[in-house]
Design a protein that fits this description.
This protein is mainly beta. It contains one helix and 23 strands.
Amino acid sequence: MEPNPGSFVLANPGLAALGADSELQFTSNTGSTSTSKFSIYDYVTANKGYVKFKIAFNGGTNGVYNFSLGDGATFSDNNAVATSQVFAGLRWSLGASNAVTYNVLNAGTYGTTGISNPTTLFVQNTATVYQVEIYANNSNASTNYTRSSTSYSLPADSWDLWVDGTRVGTALASGQLANNANFDSFAFNHQVSATTPGTVYLDDIQYANLLPSNAAPTATAGISGTATVGQTLTGSHTYNDADGDLEGTSTYRWLRADNGSGLNEAAIPGETATTYLLGLADAGKFIRFGVTPVAATGASPGAEVYSSYVRSDQHRKQFTFDHYCRFGLYANIQRELPFLHRN
């Protein structure tokens, strides 16, 4: 049988679990020493980042497939992937009866240190598609990343492995790429010649040169009502969270200033509800409503936002009463304008 150097083909293999669009179909070399390799290399470099992808396996009994994240010529040439240039390494070995064993790179050796279910987590079945996520930190300091609105700590020179929403490897040891070195490349490859290597399907590959962080919520604020002394203003807001975190208990303030530019602005003591009754101290002043959006989960709170200013007028109704008070009408006027006082 003629040697098969292997191939990567963008095709639709008809796998319902991967959807109706095309996927990257990886068939390894058989009877050949050539390297089958698919790489994304030389993107903007950093010492933190992540890679996500979907993967399925089928039809192999002795195929060995690698995922490598790192930096160096090994990601762009036609040679074997050198562990000296790999920060995070993941290997799948296909076996009889649809078995898959996976290992991770620790220094220069692949093994099972730090991972869960190395012989049972993956199986060969085109109806079973796995979501794999790698979060990597090759800096000299611990950092955090956010996944599904939860923050996780990632120590220096380590990486986390997630499969189908479960963290199966925590703070895994790195490969042989120097600590604090940047990485800008990743590759999928099959290096070992095999008689029945099987096929790997890849889809929805994502990558970034930073770790995901949960964004704090945002809001907009407004005021409704008649801005005159003795009347009630009502504050309102809209809440937004880019990560889908639901709103918790957002907080409110009413603020008073001398002009529409915020001169001498100060919070009105005790006014933390969504409504505010204008009093004598507000006559001629400029009032606005402030909201600090608070998320029930994830990063919080967001930055305080404000409505536009409204100017409070002194009187609800205007009367000419300079001589009518002599005829006992003051009581009626006082009922209309309860904040007036007889001198």
